[in-house]
Specification:
19 helices; 29 strands; alpha+beta; RNA-binding; 4 domains; 31% strand
RNA sequence: GCAGGUGUAAUCUAGUGGUCAGGAUUUUAGCCUUCCAAGCUAAUUACCCGGGUUCGAAUCCCGGCACCUGCACCA
């Protein structure tokens, strides 16, 4: 086994059609990559695997929302604020600073200043580099969202989404209704997102246009247990808690019992993530879950665990599982005025007695004419504590009105309360598809001393499942192999037919792109109707009757071990 | 964005201010070949882009772009 680095893997990816640098004939653009034929197929395979877990097994609903969104969505989400930092750089030591942080003592609210004003303020007060006392650059805007205009002329300001999650949050009322108004329910979205990164690096690890698979699970804030958690209590996981930042292995049950992971729901989806990644082809020995440090956790997050894979770049975040609390929905409630709550029905309705205003509609009518109904409704909704000096001040359609007590009585009312409105909390497993894909490729890559490259992709991820070869392209062997190839493709199995050059070269070609199985039709087929199936990882072969071949192949692809098969055939 | 390094074919690379560049792998066609990158013959493909210096630049200089490393950024 030879040492290798990400460059070797990227070379192979380009050579064999997994990943190409985008716009290469024009010199390329940093942070943009295209998927080639094999890459696209593999990406589709990973998506289908993920979808089968979230949509089929866990019952999430899937949507596909717009990439372009109006400015207000990203004001609500916080991205407009957090993506547009004003920065200055020290001309001497090259350190970068948030411009508003440097102006903290010079202005009551520097965060609210425009770029121009902040620039003027810093210049006027002769602010210099706090580290080395060097001169500072002009104030520069770092806008990490791609801005665009919606419509002709001045249009409306729009942005390309920096994450797919917001499309789910803004559809919350529709999805809540679709889920028949019951918690918990979850929604997923798979799609592209855009961040105008300052410095894209490390191949496809930091991209300006990337693919996300995000799930948003809406749960009752008062109940973060998870029924299916008991099924996975005894599964082990490697954790790096933020308390001492040391890696420990424990079961999910222990992690929750000891408070390492905050609650069952987060823990369960860390498990879902772990099992997905391993089935996708991430090496379990190079996978761990690291808890965000307090300082790196978003202020609204209750807990957050990143799946990290060990790549030649170092430990790299590939999935984040966060408890975002009620933050997103609360923000969208503020900005949109929409009702993004869930109605939590009590097991037994509560009888409540309370004091309330009872409007005298007979008097309200002549006095307030057309507005009397609205005044009455406002009175009914108002709290009796507002009553002062024989009058009450209430808000009617945004206008404050003073209503003397001759227009109402104060009475004791009995109310039956069936439940309460709550803003659901959100558990978000967010997957960087491109990073996961690259991790699968790098973890699958092996190269021996003879420079023989073998990609140990899992059967789920492999873009080609079976290579089909005639031992020689003559004597009807090729015809026979072609029939097998077509039969397998009709069964929905992705094959690759190859009759060129020597058989060894064809095996090598398939090994290099991670094809798990190869079928070779040799002369024995004319004697007993059998062909050989070759296992990529061991190069071993078994003879299998042509009849029933597809069933055997399907079993192998589903995970039956090659060894078990040898006994069976 | 800053600093340093790099840029020759699909991939890995040799090379020099002076015959429009050599090798290996790959690919394609043919010969050969009864199971793991065999051999033979032939073919296709490259000096990142733009400007400058020079009689002459792939080579030296400047600018751009891309990649690598470090810094910064990473909601």
């Amino acid at each position: 086994m030879k040492e290798f680095n990400a460059g070797d893997v990227l070379s192979l990816c380009k050579r064999r059609g997994f990943i190409y640098p985008a716009y290469e004939i024009y010199g390329g653009i940093a942070g943009l990559y295209d998927y080639g034929p094999l890459g696209t197929q593999m990406k589709t395979n990973l998506i289908n695997l993920w979808r089968s877990i979230y949509v089929l097994s866990e019952g999430f609903i899937e949507i596909d929302s717009d990439i372009i969104g109006p400015e207000i969505v990203f004001k609500a989400s916080g991205h407009a604020e957090n993506f547009q930092d004003l920065m200055v750089t020290c001309n001497q030591c090259q350190e970068s600073f948030r411009a508003d942080h440097l102006a903290k003592d010079l202005h009551p609210n520097p965060g609210a200043l425009s770029k121009k004003d902040l620039q003027a303020l810093l210049r006027e007060k002769n602010v210099i580099c706090p580290l080395c006392k060097g001169d500072l650059s002009d104030v520069e805007e770092f806008n990490l969202m791609f801005k665009t205009k919606i419509g002709p002329g001045n249009g409306r300001v729009g942005y390309l989404r920096p994450e797919t999650a917001q499309g789910i949050f803004v559809n919350y009322p529709n999805l809540y209704r679709y889920a028949r108004e019951q918690l918990p329910f979850g929604a997923v979205q798979i799609g592209r997102a855009y961040r105008n990164e300052i410095s894209p690096r490390q191949g496809v690890i930091r991209l300006r246009e990337f693919n996300q698979m995000e799930a948003e699970l809406f749960i009752d804030p008062a109940n973060k247990s998870w029924p299916r958690f008991k099924l996975i209590r005894d599964v082990k996981v490697r954790l790096v808690p933020n308390t001492d930042e040391k890696e420990v292995e424990m079961t999910f049950g222990e992690a929750v019992d000891n408070g390492v992971i905050k609650h069952e729901t987060i823990a369960y989806f860390v498990w879902v993530t772990q099992s997905f990644l391993i089935r996708a082809g991430v090496d379990p020995k190079r996978l761990r879950f690291r808890q965000h440090l307090r300082s790196e956790m978003a202020h609204y997050a209750a807990d957050c665990w990143d799946a990290e894979a060990l790549l030649s770049y170092g430990w790299t975040e590939i999935v984040g599982v966060a408890d975002r609390g009620a933050w997103d929905l609360t923000r969208h409630i503020q900005y949109s005025q929409a009702d993004l709550s869930a109605f939590k029905r009590f097991d037994h309705p509560k009888e409540v007695e309370r004091q309330a205003f009872k409007p005298k509609y007979g008097l309200l009518g002549p006095e307030f004419k057309a507005r009397s109904a609205k005044v009455g409704m406002a009175l009914e909704a108002a709290d009796v504590s507002l009553l002062k000096d024989g009058r009450v001040e209430i808000d009617v359609d945004g206008e404050m009105m003073t209503i003397p007590e001759k227009y109402f009585d104060v009475v004791l009312v009995k109310e039956k309360i069936n439940g309460e409105k709550v803003i659901p909390h959100v558990i978000e497993p967010s997957h960087g598809l491109d990073r996961i894909m690259f991790t699968c490729l790098e973890h699958a890559y092996s190269c021996d001393d003879e420079n023989y490259v073998r990609m140990g992709l899992t059967t789920a991820a492999a873009p080609i499942k079976v290579g089909v070869f005639p031992l020689m392209a003559k004597d009807d062997l090729d015809k026979r192999a072609m029939e097998i190839d077509q039969m397998l493709r009709e069964r929905g199995i992705a094959t690759y037919f190859d009759d060129s050059g020597t058989i060894g070269r064809r095996y090598a070609r398939m090994d290099e792109v991670g094809t798990p199985l190869c079928i070779t039709v040799d002369y024995q087929v004319f004697e007993d109707g059998t062909v050989t199936i070759r296992d990529r990882d061991t190069s071993r072969q078994v003879r299998v009757p042509e009849e029933g071949l597809a069933d055997v192949v399907e079993k192998l692809l589903k995970g039956i071990k090659f060894d078990q098969l040898i006994g069976k055939v």
